[in-house]
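Task card 7
Instruction: Convert sequence to structure tokens.
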Amino acid sequence: MSLPNVENLFVETVNASYIEEDVGPALEPYEQGRPGLIRIVPDFTPPEAYMNVAKKVVSNIGNFKSGQITFLRAHYNSIPLALAVQSRIGDLGGITYMILFHGDRVEDALLRGTDEEGIKQYRDKYLSALKLSDHWTVVSGLEKFEFSREAKEKSHLFHKVTTPYWKLIAKLARKGQLKSYDMINNPTEVAADNIGMDFSEYQRRIFRAMSVDSRRLLKEETEFATSLLGKPMLLGQAIVGNEGVFELEIGDTKLTFEVAGRPVLRECGRAGVNVKVNDGSKDVLTNIPAGEVYVAPIESSVNGRISTNIPIRTNSGTLSRFTCEVRDGVVVKYDTDRNDIFEKDFPKVAERTVGEIGRGGFNKELGFLREIGKPTGDAGVDEKVYPLHIALGENTGWGGTNSASIHKDFSIPQKINRKNVPLSIRRL
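Output:
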């Protein structure tokens, strides 16, 4: 079979162990203002623990037929797991290209080293790779990294030119070209340090959470969603929100919202199980570790208050606390420890619109994090742990209508003033 020409997408090819030892050589093109993608060539066998979890992860995220093309986007600190996933896909007959992209260090170097036109070139290469994909898999891990002042000042350029990303994903899904878009959250030492746990133990626990039985998880998520919506559904069918106003409350957070006609999605770690979103296309989004039920609410219907002290990393810094008033779906008043960061990263109505309401806590293997009661700092993990998360910004990829340059999840704690507070969700 003829393979797509991907050579023009890559600035440089480097081996995996070289990046692990020193990410500097891989960043050199960005420092020189020549943005592009970097192909990673495997040159060592991943440890057995990574291979074992990769077998389970790959069995969940897609049916990799012979000749199908997977682009693996790997953060430099997640390369061993990405290589294991690549190896497993190869065993099943898939064709895999691995690229280094978008880690904090890469984004910082890009923003410092080039102008808006250079960032557009970078974006175009990335979107070209996405168009060639049958499957697109991101393997990322939390980094301990502080953006430079210059990068923070230019972060709006990055969002300005990368906005088409989610629109392209939705378009490819509608055409049936993109079979799965998978986000795998690799356990890192930074996340383990944040909760005071030995890394080897943290890694073992997260790998267990990655390997849960997706059928059991889907069953429990389906039971929750259908009990809330009040109609029985068969496993695997699409669940669509009913007419009516819903109210949720936990601590100082209290919102009313509507979900009529919107897909209520179950995140069990398997692509395609949610069947259809608003435009009739398959939902291709998958997150591992899995364990949430979420919906893009009717944007203008959301009213109330959001309050959390769980830190959230944005592109310009970290918000350690966040309280806001939402009116007709939009944040109209806010109080944070760094209002300047919020104003920079959420500058317009689209960025300040509630784009997602999610219920976590379904993955029992993540229960140890609930017991510890501290955030890992990795939003992809924390949103599966806390009972509630609410996102501002983009939601067109899962049935919403709000197109924005950012999507950030704010997790809401269950323990308030040292007491566990239950989450209440009910239909008014």
